[in-house]
Amino acid sequence: MHHTQIRLKTAIQFSHGNVCMVVISPICMVKSSCQLRYSYLYADNFIRINIAMTLYETLANELKAQIERGVFEVGNKLPSVRQLSTEHKVSIATVQEAYRVLEAQQLVEAKPKSGYFVARSILIDNTPSMTKPPQRPMDVSQWEGVLDTLLNTFNKDHDAKTLCQFQHAMPNMTAKTLKPLIKRLHELTKHRALDGMIYGDVKGDETLRKQLSRLAAASGCVLQSDEFIVTSGCQEALSVCLRAVASAGDVIAVESPGFYGAMQAIKGAELKALEIPTDSETGLSLKALKLALDQWPIKAILVAPTVNNPQGFVMPEAKKKALYELAREYDVAIIEDDIYGDIAYAYPRPKTIKSFDKDGRVLLCSSFSKTLAPGFRVGWIAPGSYRNKVLHVKYVSSSMCPTLPQLAIASFIEQGGYDKHIRAMRHHYLSARDALRSDIKRYFPADTCISYPQGGYVLWVELNSRYDSVKLADEAKQKGIYVAPGQLFSATGKYRHCLRFNFIDSTQAARTEAIQRLGEMLVAQEA
Fold it and tell me: Is pTM, for the whole model, over 0.85?
């Protein structure tokens, strides 16, 4: 291993991705066979933060630049894995990982026994149209339907064997890359059981908050550990933020369709939801939002702009910045749900709205429920200027969160397990998305519209208005197939002709069979 050490006596400035940071202390740069690691120390609180630029990322960026400059044109064969390994003096695995990154960005495609080629433009047809929700604040309903969906985890009402559960948005929890995390949790339970039984810090364990600070840098944010508050999942994070920024009767602007958990959090806080028209590829309509801000006393904007649930879109960066500026103009808060942000298919992952925040009006919410496993119940908030209010609401809501899951996840991140797991899941989820979209196109009616997710593992299907997704869900349940009807994703029960699918439950064969059966049920509805 070759080491190069550089010592600086004065403050210098360098960038990693889109983040610019000031370093005041000696810096050591180490080059190894697997990564270039920059370590630096914040002088004010002596928190050590590591930012790694791996060799495969460097190689991927170089190839991407060559494609963009036209060195390799559409359809051209790219250098072989072995050739790049020799030329760049890196391992075969490093080159393969670089190509996986470019596949996720849809810049290259692999052909069996032929190698890698510059991808042709993908025609994304038949995506859902811009939504047209009611243009007035409404009380949220649909709790009974949401509860029924939550309780449908197990097949208790009939004898049919469960074929596929499309209704829940749950990650792949059988991945080998999770084994170190499970092992670490077991070790902590065995050797530090007392830590799991006593009261912890109401803000969350500092070990985890330090790691959250590191992860935030990938989304363009410079946040220190004290700027985070750990919650019991993202559901509590959203609920706490709503109660911190608004009072009973206030109006919250939301995407339409939107995550039913967020809708129910609005209902629980006795607020009103104002659904804003949303495009399935670029997100919330800023034009419609501005009109709503002119007409109604909106207290906050609740959005999931990066890998949206249920549609899967990533709002363009310029639009995120424009949304933030609009919130500043009207002096309203933004509650940003970033729970799927880390599993966007593109690398580096997209920036958050929080990364543009200059005055602390953006409350960033996320958790590990969609990237690791929901059972850990570890989420967080970066509440900006609302920190004191959020901390109080969190305390009266649930006090502190269990410590051992926080410690296990912090260790998993620090040891590199989280990054490794996320890389593997991006590739896995991307493949599953394409497979499910292909099945729906094959077995559903020809006029079906399907969203084109840019990350995560859920997509949105818009049927012709002559179909009833609630009726379909009830019938499918009797055959062991569970789906989430679209009306759950509206405050008032719109989208009865739509469905949301999780595309990674069960096996690929089971998902294909389930989609085929659903298609047959839709044909029967026409009779």
Answer: no
